[in-house]
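Continuing the batch. This is chain 6 of the set; chains 1 through 5 are on the previous pages. Same settings as before, nothing changed between runs. Recording input and output for traceability.
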Amino acid sequence: MLIRRSVVPVALLLALSAGCANNTGTETGAPAPASATPESATTVEPSVPGKPSGDGGTTTLTGKITAGVEPGCLLLDGHLLVFSDAAQKGSVKAGDQITVTGKSEPDLMTTCQQGEPFKVSSVAAG
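Output for chain 6:
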């Protein structure tokens, strides 16, 4: 009877440990490995306001700035404007008609929770 009391808990513990030890991460429900896919360059008619244009990664956007849902966030046609310095950001406000040049940065993390980040390199009244 004494052997039975000590063997059963040990056998149960070994069975549970063996199930956890075989965790390879390839079972159903495991996240698939990320694959890097190259971004394709898109050229859009430059005369269309607010649409990306240009080549070599530089894009020009023209349109009316709207305020984002978070304080201090400014959007232009679905793009979150990320300014390189405070002077640039201070020169524009919601409602302004502007033309900006810069580069789309879809992987950039922000606290604005909307719009595709667009790093602004220059601003002009538009």
